[in-house]
Amino acid sequence: MLTISGGSVTNAGVVTIGATSGSFGNGLVVSNGGGFFGGSTLYVGATAGASNNYYNIGSAGAKSTVSQWCDFMLVMPMPTATP
Question: In Å, how far from its chain's centre is CA 48?
Fold first, then answer.
């Protein structure tokens, strides 16, 4: 887990939270006036089998700011059909 509390991250490039199958409980938290000004793409659960990964913005503290330049992708497994 990466927590940005009151600080800033800039020019992050491609950000991947939960990169492999079996990735569990990975997260990015921006809180208490923190700022995250990221790059081209943000992936949460980048492959099938990754679960319970998260991207959380804000808290009861000061206003937090997040800006992604292009894409946000949440990868979810495709449902299977039953015969």
Answer: 16
Interval 14-43: pLDDT, tens: 888 888 888 898 888 888 888 888 767 788
CA distances from 22 to 1, 26, 72 (A): 16, 11, 21
Reported in sequence order, the residue ranges of 1-83 that DSSP labels E, i.e. its strands, are: 2-5, 8-10, 15-17, 27-31, 35-37, 41-44, 54-57, 65-67, 71-74
Integer CA distances (angstroms), 54 to 61, 81, 83, in order: 20, 27, 33
- Close Cβ partners of 28 (under 8 Å, ≥ 6 residues apart): 1, 2, 4, 15, 17, 36, 54, 55, 56
